[in-house]
Amino acid sequence: xxxxxxxxxxxxxxxxxxxxxxxxxxxxxxxxxxxxxxxxxxxxxxxxxxxxxxxxxxxxxxxxxxxxxxxxxxxxxxxxxxxxxxxxxxxxxxxxxxxxxxxxxxxxxxxxxxxxxxxxxxxxxxxxxxxxxxxxxxxxxxxxxxxxxxxxxxxxxxxxxxxxxxxxxxxxxxxxxxxxxxxxxxxxxxxxxxxxxxxxxxxxxxxxxxxxxxxxxxxxxxxxxxxxxxxxxxxxxxxxxxxxxxxxxxxxxxxxxxxxxxxxxxxxxxxxxxxxxxxxxxxxxxxxxxxxxxxxxxxxxxxxxxxxxxxxxxxxxxxxxxxxxxxxxxxxxxxxxxxxxxxxxxxxxxxxxxxxxxxxxxxxxxxxxxxxxxxxxxxxxxxxxxxxxxxxxxxxxxxxxxxxxxxxxxxxxxxxxxxxxxxxxxxxxxxxxxxxxxxxxxxxxxxxxxxxxxxxxxxxxxxxxxxxxxxxxxxxxxxxxxxxxxxxxxxxxxxxxxxxxxxxxxxxxxxxxxxxxxxxxxxxxxxxxxxxxxxxxxxxxxxxxxxxxxxxxxxxxxxxxxxxxxxxxxxxxxxxxxxxxxxxxxxxxxxxxxxxxxxxxxxxxxxxxxxxxxxxxxxxxxxxxxxxxxxxxxxxxxxxxxxxxxxxxxxxxxxxxxxxxxxxxxxxxxxxxxxxxxxxxxxxxxxxxxxxxxxxxxxxxxxxxxxxxxxxxxxxxxxxxxxxxxxxxxxxxxxxxxxxxxxxxxxxxxxxxxxxxxxxxxxxxxxxxxxxxxxxxxxxxxxxxxxxxxxxxxxxxxxxxxxxxxxxxxxxxxxxxxxxxxxxxxxxxxxxxxxxxxxxxxxxxxxxxxxxxxxxxxxxxxxx
Length: 864
What we know:
By secondary structure, the protein is α/β, with parallel strands linked by helices. The strands form six sheets. Strands 1-2-3-4-5-6-8-7 form an eight-stranded mixed beta sheet, with helices on both faces. A seven-stranded mixed beta sheet has the order 11-12-10-9-13-14-15, sandwiched between helices. It has a seven-stranded mixed beta sheet with strand order 17-16-19-18-20-21-22, sandwiched between helices. About 1% of the residues have low confidence. The chain is built from 26 helices and 39 strands.
C-alpha cells in the first residue's frame, strides 16, 4: 500500500485491488451518478454489467492485468485498471472516481501508479477512449502526457499516456506534487491554532518552553495547552485532553514521553503534528518499530508529522509569527532565508549564528528523524513561498535522492539552494570491483547530485551562511569578474589571492586608496568601479583607525553601494568597534576577513552561472535495441564474460574493438592470425580489475611467436594452466579514457568518464553524472576533467572526437535508464581518436534491483 496526497493535501491510500474488495467496489459504482457511470461505460449500466466489472477488477494482478483502488480512511473513493492489448506494449486503462472526490487529483494519482506497474511489466503506453464531453478525464490525460496530440473519432477522444514520463510530463508531475505538498503542510507552517500536548507547569520543561515561545513570539492564532493536571499554564488555558479542546487544532506540538505519543495521535484527526519527544528511530530496532507504529497511526488519522526527536519550527511571517521551538534566544529578524536542519544541535548553532550575523529567516524547520516530512517536502513547499528567497539545508541522509535532485533543481532555477551534507558515507563503502564503482564513492555521488541540481554545497555551516547572506539580498552576478578596492593594502592582496581559488577573475588590479582615504574618496571609488562595466562583483575593504572616522566612512560606503549599479557586493571591516552585520538599504553583508567574503562571492557567482546555463535535453539516439538488451540481461547475475558485455554494448550502438576469445595457446595464435598483427592479448577474467598490475596484458605483439609467449606469461601470472584470454588488433593513437555505469540503491545509476588506462587510479581525474544524461550534461562531463585539454589538441596533438565521446556518454545514460540491473559497467580503456572512438575493454556485472525509492511516483514515506 502507498500513502499519497490529494491535490488539496489530504492523505489517501492506494493499493492493489483484492478479492475481498468486491462489496466496496459495488458500493462505489452504485453510489456513482448515472452521468458518471455513462462517462465510464459510454452507456447506461445495469446490475449485470456492474457485476462483470467488479469481477474483472477483483481478478489477481498479473502480467496482463492490474487494478488499483484509492481509499480515504475505510472508504473506497476510486478505482483504476489496465488490461494488456493484443499489441503487447500497450494496455487499455479505465478509471472511476467517487463523485464527491472529482477534481481532487484522485484519478491522476491512480493512473500514475498504474503507469509505474505497467512499466515494470514491459508496457510502454496506456491507451483509452474518453467521451469528448468527459472534460475531467481529458484534463487528467493531458496532465499525464502534456503536449501529446489527442486523436478524435466522432464524439470519442483516443488518448495515450506513455508509462515513462518525458521531461514535460515530469515537470507537470512536479507541479502537481508542489500543489499537494503546499496544501498538506499549511497546517504545519501556517496553522490557525496550536495545541501543546505535554506542557508542564514549571519553567525548563520542553513543552512549557514551547508554549512560552508561542506566546512571547506573538502567534496570531489560538494557543492551547493540554495537561490533565492544570487549568492554566503560562497564562494559557489548559485542557485535560485533545478531545476537550474548543476546536480541533491545526497543529499539535507533542512533548510527552515516547510511549505516550501514539495515544495522543489517536485522539487527533487531520492537520499536522510536531513530535519533539525522543526515543524513536534513533534508539535502535525497538525504537524504529515504535516510530513506524506512530507513523501508521498518524497516517490513519490524516496527520502529517514533523520529527520525532526534533527542535520544532519557526515561521517569521508577520501574518503567522509561529515559534514552535524550545530553542533559546531565537532570532526575531524576518528575512528571506528558509532553513531545514536534520540535527537539532546544528539547528541551534544555525539560529545562533544567524542572530549574530543579522541573517533574516523566513522559516526554520528541524527535521529530526524524518519519519514523515523530509527535505523534499519542504523544498516543494518553499518553491512558491513568497517570503522565501533562498533555502539552506543541513542533511545527514537522503530518503529519495533522485527525487531530491529533480525537486532541488526546479527550485534552484528560481531561488538559491545551499546545503551542508555531513557524513562521508551515504551508502557505505562499495564492494564493486571496477574503476567506475570505485570512482562513484558516496560523497562523490552527493557532489554530483548537488552539481546537477544547482545546489551550492559548502563544507561548513559558517560558509553556508556566508554564501546565503550574499545570495538572499544581492542580485545575481552577470559574470565572474571581481573588483577589489579599499584602504588596507595588505588585505586587498589577501583578497586578490583568494579570488582564483573562488573561481573569480580580476580584470583590474585591486585599488588601494591608502589608509588616509577620506569617506568621500571611498564613496567615489566604489561608484566609479561599480559603474565601469569592468567588474561583475565588488568587494570593499575598510580598516578603521583613530584618524579616518570609521562612522563617516561606513555611511559613505553604504550610500555609494545603494546608489551604484546593482551588482553583488560585500564589505570587509577591520578595526571597527561593533561592526554592523549589513550595510545600506541593500543589506550588503559585512565580513571580518577578506577570505570568507571572497569565497561567498565566488559561490554566488557560480550559482548565477549555473542559473544561466540551459538544462539540455535527452537526445534522440539511433541504433538502440532496448528489447534485445533486456533479453540479454534477464536472468543473469554477477560478472559476465566479454561476449555478453560486447553484445550489450552493441545493442546501444557503442563501438567495440574486434575481439576473439581464446581458451588455450593455439586458440590465441589462431585468433591473432585471423585478426592481423600487431595484436594485444589480455586476460578475459571479468573479476580482475588491474590486469596490467598482474602482468595479464601484453601489447604490440608482432607475430605468432610473441603471442604464444604472451599467453604463457599471462598463464604464469594468473597461476592457471589454460586461462581464457581476449585477442584484439592494436588500436594506436588517440586519448585513453575510462567510462562506465554504476548503480546505487539510493542514487540510482551514475555515469562516469575519466582519464583511462594506468592513469585512472593514479590521477583520479573523473566526472560523474546522475540520470538522465542530457546532451549538455555529456558535454559538461568531459569538460570538467582536469585533463580535458588532452581532448582538444594539447601541444599540437590532433583534437579528439569529442562529439563521439558525448554520444557515448548519452548512450551509457540511456542504457543505465533502461537497465538498472547493470550494477557495474566499466569501459577501460576506450580510446578517442580524431574521427571516432573505440572501446578496448569492458567489464559488466549484473545484479537484480531490490526495493528502491521511485523518483517518479508521488508517494509518502512507507509505514513499514
